[in-house]
């Protein structure tokens, strides 16, 4: 299944909105003061809300002839003003992995020496994070979400490795790989770790033992209280939860990077998500997280679908399930995942909860998810909603550019992500940047 042809008038309007957002982001508008080194570093090295993410926008547009290369150089210079962080807090969306992702995506085949240095730093970071995770497992302790999630954890670092060694990326492959060894050894170590994460924790030192999955986190969710989540929780989303590892394992399997037990691990996560899929009047949905009492009683505290965002909601989870089903050749599960996403797109009650135009929590993330799901879909159920999604996102982009405001930096939570989503929906050239969202 491929995406339908976009109406010429809608394409032109969306392309014009994309151009205006890109012009507003031609150069950094909010220089960070010299006495705030940490602020400068964060502003530069972030895909979420910073220069690295904005560089991706201008690089992709320059490659399709829609923008000048000078903007790419401006933003990459901003991204690398400070020493690039390869500390334990670095992850796909911040630090060396984020800057490496931005350079490889924005100017593929260029900056070989810089990319080699960043790849080496990322490889060391991945090795250290894997060693720490193995020590944690051996000690019988539960993982923090940041150990395995997409944003900060090993799923995101695995996505970086996969992005840097993908088979169609011939220019980058000739420059070297972040993987020690040509056979993807480090990526396979990440895959093997995630396979192990799906198994019960051996010698668990807490009260749960083997009664909870290996990805149960003992941490209290951000913004919640220990009273509401005694003993921890499970996050189901794609940004911080188990749908991220599911999407990554499936994408790796589709590209031929496999380890023993990988298909079983994918199926194990899918069965867990099947168990927690809820069926309402408007279709299937998933809770954002599950606590101990919910696990014990087999039903979520959440009584209906929350905001249909890429990061926590049904769209991201459904896309992960679709990728998993395709990787396993499970037609029935693929149809179920695609039906869940299509029903979500058809539900005014869910759509009214989206108040943000950007990728992480808003309309751009919903549109990008639907766009990539459509390209893999077995039916045209999702594709039927793309014209309306493009129209909505275009209107929001026009409102942003109509105001007297500088562009908001960043890919994931900035205007660059809105512009790039409009770009992919109006351009036939392939785009690899959604790898940082595990959409492709």
TrEMBL record:
Protein's recorded name:
Lanthionine synthetase C family protein
According to the record, the segments passing through the membrane are: none
Q: SUPFAM superfamilies of this UniProt entry?
A: LanC-like (SSF158745)
Q: Which domain of life is it from?
A: Bacteria
């Amino acid at each position: 299944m491929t995406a339908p042809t976009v109406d010429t008038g809608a394409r032109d309007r969306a392309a014009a909105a994309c151009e205006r957002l890109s012009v507003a982001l031609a150069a950094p508008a909010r220089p960070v003061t010299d006495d705030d080194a940490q602020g400068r570093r964060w502003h530069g090295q972030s895909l979420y809300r910073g220069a690295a993410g904005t560089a991706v926008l201008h690089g992709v547009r320059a490659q399709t002839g829609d923008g000048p290369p000078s903007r790419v150089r401006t933003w990459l210079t901003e991204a690398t003003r400070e020493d690039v962080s390869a500390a334990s807090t670095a992850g796909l969306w911040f630090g060396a992995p984020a800057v490496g992702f931005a350079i490889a995506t924005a100017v593929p085949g260029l900056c070989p020496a810089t990319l080699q240095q960043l790849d080496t730093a990322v490889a060391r970071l991945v090795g250290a994070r894997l060693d720490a995770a193995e020590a944690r497992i051996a000690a019988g302790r539960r993982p923090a979400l940041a150990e395995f999630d997409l944003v900060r954890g090993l799923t995101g670092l695995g996505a970086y490795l996969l992005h840097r060694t993908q088979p169609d990326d011939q220019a980058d492959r000739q420059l070297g790989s972040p993987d020690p060894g040509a056979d993807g050894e480090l990526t396979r170590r990440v895959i093997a770790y995630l396979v192990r994460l799906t198994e019960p924790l051996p010698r668990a030192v807490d009260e749960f033992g083997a009664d909870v999955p290996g990805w149960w986190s003992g941490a209290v969710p951000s913004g919640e209280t220990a009273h509401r989540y005694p003993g921890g929780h499970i996050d189901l989303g794609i940004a911080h939860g188990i749908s991220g590892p599911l999407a990554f394992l499936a994408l790796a399997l589709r590209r031929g990077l496999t380890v023993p037990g990988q298909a079983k691990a994918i199926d194990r996560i899918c069965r867990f998500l099947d168990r927690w899929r809820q069926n309402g009047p408007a279709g299937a949905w998933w809770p954002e997280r599950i606590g101990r009492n919910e696990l014990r009683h087999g039903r979520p505290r959440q009584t209906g679908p929350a905001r249909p965002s890429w990061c926590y909601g049904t769209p991201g989870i459904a896309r992960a399930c679709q990728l998993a089903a395709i990787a396993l050749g499970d037609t029935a599960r693929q149809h179920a995942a695609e039906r869940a996403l299509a029903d979500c797109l058809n539900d005014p009650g869910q759509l009214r909860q989206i108040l943000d135009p950007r990728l992480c929590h808003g309309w751009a993330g919903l549109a990008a998810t639907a766009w990539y799901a459509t390209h893999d879909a077995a039916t045209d159920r999702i594709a039927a909603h793309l014209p309306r999604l493009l129209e909505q996102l275009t209107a929001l982009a026009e409102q942003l550019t109509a105001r007297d405001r500088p562009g908001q930096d960043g890919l994931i939570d900035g205007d660059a992500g809105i512009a790039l989503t409009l770009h992919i929906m109006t351009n036939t050239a392939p785009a690899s940047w959604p790898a940082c969202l595990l959409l492709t």
